Amino acid sequence: MSLTISLAELNALKNYILKTGLKRATPTNEYELLRIEDGKVKIVVYKSGKVVHNNSPESKAVIDNTLRPETEYQYLLGSDETGKGEWYGPLVVVCVALTPREVDKARKMGARDSKTIKESEIRRLATLFRKENFFSTPRVLSPSTYNARYEEFEREGKSLNDLLAWAHARVIKDTVEKLKFDRAKVVIDKFDVAKTYQRLYGLDTRRIEIIQKSKGESETPVAVASIIAKDIFEREVEGLSKVYGIDLKRTPVSRIPSSILPQVAKLHFSNVRKVAEEKAPR
């Protein structure tokens, strides 16, 4: 099992080792920061903050004594998107709202950056999160909707970052409107601070703390959002592939009929635009 811990939690782990006398072992490579091997307790802490353990009751007890859940907020929200870098399929943006207890549970379930997880594990985790009824608000922009929205923003002299800021702000605001709280924290994987803040105008910052953070997936709500978004994206791509009889993930753009490009591809991508121009009637 694995999870990510903060600097404060790492210090708590070190203090717990000193207090209990757990035996430490020599790290086996340059990426390891701390290794514990004491009977049934086997825990490795990496410099990235990632923690891997053998899932024994004894190791879980150590982890439980290490985690420091945030109690200042009733909800911790995170948003993330998937599909921005793929020429095919939709853009999927998801906001997740978790209570401190749910954050703790999601971490122990293995929530982490979806880019570091195999597709089968993403499916498994997304299914578990849904069974736990973690509150999430997805927005799926199908290729045709995405293309229309992109053209609209482009005509206004705006960029892809404007579209992303709009989508993130929309799912965050939709989520906040459905929650009852006195204090909440929103974490967004940082891409354009000014444009995102502009789109989030109107949120009550007296009750809501907004943080835009590089590598935001290190925050559990963002990690959960990234996993759910990736799962939705993969399912949507599978659906499009079945509808049009083409494996979009493995078929070159040049082999996609021009008549269906607007329905399966993001037309502003240079490789898609080039193919569309080549196949356009003369």
Task: Describe what you observe in this structure.
This protein has 282 residues and is an alpha+beta fold. It has three domains: 2-66, 2-Layer Sandwich (TATA-Binding Protein); 75-237, Nucleotidyltransferase, domain 5 (2-Layer Sandwich), CATH 3.30.420.10; 247-279, no CATH class. Helices cover 44% and strands 20% of the residues. It is globular, with a radius of gyration of 22 Å.
Question: Would you kindly provide a brief summary of this structure?
Answer:
This protein is α+β, with helices and mostly antiparallel strands and 282 residues long. The chain has ten helices and ten strands.
Comma- or semicolon-separated keywords:
single chain; 282 residues; TATA-Binding Protein; Nucleotidyltransferase, domain 5; five-stranded antiparallel sheet; five-stranded mixed sheet; 10 helices; 44% helix
SSE blueprint:
Layout: E1 2-4, H1 7-20, E2 24-25, E3 32-38, E4 41-46, E5 50-53, H2 57-66, E6 75-82, E7 91-98, H3 100-109, H4 119-131, E8 135-141, H5 143-155, H6 160-176, E9 184-189, H7 193-199, E10 208-213, H8 220-244, H9 261-264, H10 270-279
Parallel strand pairs: 6-9, 9-10
Antiparallel strand pairs: 1-5, 2-3, 3-4, 4-5, 6-7, 7-8
Helix pairs in contact: 1-2, 4-8, 6-7
